[in-house]
């Protein structure tokens, strides 16, 4: 309990410290360049100078934190990826050469591409269906909440939840996993879903799809509601069927939002780590890049060079999305 | 609202949504039901059978001579294998090889003239020529139809015994400051990016958008090195709460700045202009006008950040470490999965404890969460 008090005290100290910084630095700036000076020329010069400095006072802490926690690490990782396990001796491209010859890395890349193909597509598609369906009914908001709820659950919590679905007992004994119970009830034989190479990837993916569908649904639902009524009414008058209206009139109008949802989920997929760690820890050919990196960071003595190299690969996969996002944001700002 | 020719197949829509919701709820409901089930029942039957009676193979060890009587020269020991619980015995036996060899009410001959009978209601009668006080007590195997039993015992166990209470506090200690600190820093930065003209502003905004997607994995190794060397130089433990708060702050800032800037940029210009004409400084405009008006955006980000820091495993493992006293809930769950993967009762209750807080926050604050998601994602229709 004392630890919680310490945390609370730190919050208070931290917040008052930050508040003091913002308040004090502004006060100081106003003292150095007072807006009310003897002659107007000095006053306007002071105001202009203060206006030049003030934004950087406001931005200061944020720039500091962003540089230390996100910008510097990108550069440092590049540097580390050219060094050995201790991060001290330069080894050139040896880590990259090792990487492309490594079976574990190839397996992770293959699995990551499977995840990238399946999870964003499945989540977006299911989210679109859920959005279209729930928008049409009176209790749609309740249904949305329930489908959206898994988003609040941690990947580890989700892994435990799905362990109860995928559990396997030997043939003949009573199955306590839902999936195997259904398979047995339908006359099939139970399978160890999580321990079956290749296919187990898809059972792990199902967990992420389960979490991300709600996210896709919420955003796509808002986009669907933003479609101008006239376009739909015109189609109804022309005698289009419900499905035709949905796929030929509505979906094309929300391509932009679909792309945003798709890329956001893609980034989540690239970082996925907890699910694999908790369900299989990379056994049975289910390794992915993020977990492989964690492996190299800590287990096996900890090889910072190779770990950083894998981080660089993850980063490279993200770069196209990053560029696309920045271009979109700039376009949007020019539109304002 | 979306309108279409819906009346003709309205029930199809309703049915599809019911199926969709049921599919999405089922795994979580399974965990919830399991966490309230009796320890013995979880591992022998699926949670969907929880409401019906289940057939179980159980063992009862008769007390070694306690309460035996002498009747007609034979020692007789009576009792009930169900030990006060309700249920119906459907078979019994005296060896583990044939645990269901006898029907209830029949008399089984054990060696040395000992006989055993178990009735359908669980009452047993052991009788033999010698006292049962010698030995460890006869084991009685029986198959019983046991009615569903729901219990809070799993929760009592995990909260007291397996370190979960401690981890709960740790998670709180990590999540709350990690949510509050970035809001303050980001709010000032967002105001500057939204309402203060200065050279390089659009470049800064582009940088924030770019940093939004930088994978966290990137930062772990370099930061760990910094933390270790700073810790060594100043002589304190590099794995501290302050370290993880700052890390979460750094990782959460891009989203915070992005969300808040978008929101603040949408505030009406006139309000700020007139305040400026009245002689208000930027600092006053920010604290008295912009901050209160931005409450919805602040709330959205706070929820995001709280959910993310509470549910995070990676950052906690790296910057706080896997030691028992610093383990957060997610880390504890991973450990339980590894070490006690077969103890379903502990696993289910622990998992539910760990997801209860974020799920409550989710349902209470859903409105803000959705608003924040939309502000961050819907661009160009």
Walk me through what this model shows:
The complex is a heterodimer of chains A (336) and B (381). Chain A has 336 residues and is an all-alpha fold. Chain A has 2 domains: 2-80; 102-154 and 193-335, Orthogonal Bundle (MetI-like fold), CATH 1.10.3720.10. Chain A is built from 14 helices and no strands. In chain A, helix 4 (103-134) packs parallel to helix 8. With 381 residues, chain B is α+β, with helices and mostly antiparallel strands. Chain B folds into 3 domains: 7-49; 54-147, no CATH class; 156-377, MetI-like fold. Chain B is built from 13 helices and 8 strands. Chain B has helices at residues 10-35, 39-42, 153-160, 164-195, 201-211, 217-234, 241-265, 269-277, 282-293, 295-311, 314-319, 329-339, 344-377; strands spanning 54-61, 69-71, 74-80, 88-93, 107-109, 115-118, 123-128, 139-146. In chain B, the strands form 2 sheets. In chain B, strands 2-3-7-6-5 form a 5-stranded antiparallel β-sheet, with no helix packed on it. In chain B, strands 1-8-4 form a 3-stranded antiparallel β-sheet, with no helix packed on it. In chain B, a hairpin with a 5-residue loop joins strand 5 (107-109) and strand 6. Chain B is elongated, with a radius of gyration of 32 Å. The model of chain B is unreliable at 1-6 (pLDDT under 50). Classes of the chains: A mainly alpha (336), B alpha+beta (381).
